[in-house]
Amino acid sequence: MSAQPQHPVSPEEIRRFVARAARQEQFLEVVSREEAEARFRRHLDLAPRGEEVVPLSAALGRVLACDVVAGVDVPGFDRSSVDGFAVRAADTTGAQEDSPVLLRLNAEVLSAGRVPALTVEPGTATVIATGGMLPRGADAVVMVEQTEAVEQDGVLSVAIARPAVPGGFVAAAGSDIGRGETVLRRGQRLTSREIGVLAAVGRAEVAVLRRPRIAILSTGDEIVAPGDPIRPGAVYDSNGAVLAAAVAELGGEPVPLGIAPDEEAALEALVQQGLACDGLLLSGGTSKGAGDVSYRIVSRLTDPGIVVHGVALKPGKPLCLAVTGGKPVVVLPGFPTSAMFTFHSFVAPVIRAMAGMPPAEAWTVSATLPVRLASERGRTEYVMVSLMRGQDGLAAYPLSRGSGSVTAFSAADGFLAIDAQAEGMEAGTAVSVQLLGRSLEPADLIIVGSHCVGLDSLIGRLMGEGVTVKALNVGSMGGLAAARRGECDVAPIHLLDPATGVYNEAFLTPELDLVKGYRRLQGIVFRPAIRVSRAGVPRRPRRRSPATRTAS
Question: What is the 3-state secondary structure of 216-239?
Fold first, then answer.
């Protein structure tokens, strides 16, 4: 946002200030998405930012910097995989339930971690637990369920009712991992499974790629940090928080720089601080007008500096892409939906590359557009959608298309594209939806229709009991249409039939049942106006009357 001129000022200074703002020289050059991406990538250094050694406890989510070769066998010795008796398989030949083989027990019990002291000689056996080290002489284990303990003349023996085979119920040394085997490869992202492998081969620390450090700076006099008191005309900084979380999800290390006012010296100092990192993201103020301080600061960068300012996208037209010394410097639009869409389109792939991660796979599904979507020629428009399962497959419901919407990304399952030369899409059009995640998890209960705070309370109780709920507020008529198409389980509606004065019943079809819910009281909240007399003198406002409350 632009800073107003300081008072006192002359009328001529105000006129010049307004004239500068009115010119609205917004963009250097609006280019296609493909051209913008090509220019941006051409100057970037996308190589990983070196490596570091971290303890195993801090390795989750990191990317391996080199192959991991096992220095030990896993297991490191022959061990039993069941509770039973270590035997020589040849001693059990011919064993049957009606004529078991009798073997004398050795005077030791092999629990896990105990080194055997006695050898299993012909005609003997040793008690062994799961994980116990196989003693010398033994080549098999008989499960305890196939045996029976016997004592004769003070001698303990075991009766075996089924013959063993060599290697039976024995995990041989190196059968899981052999010494010298490559167990993990460079570039793998470490999950809990890979952490287990590293621990199994004795690694207490591991070499990983260094996370790219991405500085994040929110700009604008109107931005307030969450937790601070809000003032008229101000908004909380949601972009800073969501960008930091997104950078961390992508394998980067966010470096929050806070909020910069629309004051050139303060902003330039923070930008210089951010340039010490591997990349810099600014959000807010990407136009070329007189009040755009962010653009003026970034325009001073060289090598090469700004490569794109303006992309033929909706949302996201005012995106500014710059590169200096191989580092990305991006000025994202201030509105949340525009900021996040352009971030995921242009910045996220760059952070993944610098973190040593492969490009993200694009997962798409086919769906049908249930309502008409208008658009304007000249820009490719991306629309966030929520997917509902209907009788004829998936339906893609458009979410709020305002670039200032904070909830569009969190409520969306994916997005669809409207071609730059199209004026919209008609209802019933088959569309391809790119998912924001890898999978589309169906909800237990789908609600499409009118919004109500009472319904919000009920949904909260259901979700607290473990029921997954997807609710889409599209109004009563939209909910009714969705119910008729079989795209939802419940459609909250309050539609009045003017002919009868009865709510909802006239709009039913044989396939729909009306379940009457609760009644709610509605009212009108208003501010008492200042009444002015005919002479232009303000009068005291009349005493406020209570708002009328009506049942519906």
Answer: EEEECCCEECCCCCCCCCCEECHH
Average of per-residue pLDDT across 173-188: 94
The model's pTM is 0.77
**Among 60, 73, 386, which residue's Cα sits nearest to residue 208?**
60
Residues 133/114, Cβ–Cβ less than 8 Å: yes
Give CA angle at 505 (500, 506), nearest 5°: 60
Both tokens assigned to 233: 């005309």
Q: So what's the pLDDT on residue 535?
A: 56
User: Taking a C-beta distance cutoff of 8 angstroms, is the pair 171, 184 a contact?
Assistant: no
Contacts of 19 (CB under 8 A, 6+ apart): none
d(CA 208, CA 303): 30
Report the alpha-carbon distance of residue 452 to residue 457 in Å, rounded: 9
Whole-number pLDDT of residue 527: 78
All structural domains of the chain, each given as residue ranges with its CATH number in brackets, are: 11-47+211-354 (3.40.980.10), 51-74+176-209 (3.90.105.10), 79-171 (2.170.190.11), 364-435 (2.40.340.10), 445-521 (no CATH)
Distance CA 218, CA 216 (A): 7
DSSP string across 136-161? TT--EEEEGGGEEEEEETTEEEEEE-
3-class SS at 13?
A: helix
Query: What is the chain's percent helix, strand, coil content, to nearest 5?
Result: 20, 30, 50
Q: Residue 218: exposed, middle, or buried by beta-carbon count in 10 A (0-12, 13-18, 19+)?
A: buried
Residues 240 and 216 sit within 8 Å (Cβ to Cβ): yes
- pLDDT at residue number 550: 34
Write the pLDDT tens digit of every residue in 335-389.
888 898 899 999 999 999 999 999 988 889 999 998 899 998 888 899 989 898 8
What are the phi and psi torsion angles at 408 (to 5°)?
-60, -45
Contact 333, 400 (CB under 8 A): no
pLDDT-based confidence at residue 290 (cuts at 50, 70, 90): very low
Element (H, E) at 551: strand 550-551
* Secondary structure, 3-state, 428-470: CCEEEEEECCCCCCCCCEEEEECCCHHHHHHHHHHHHCCCCEE
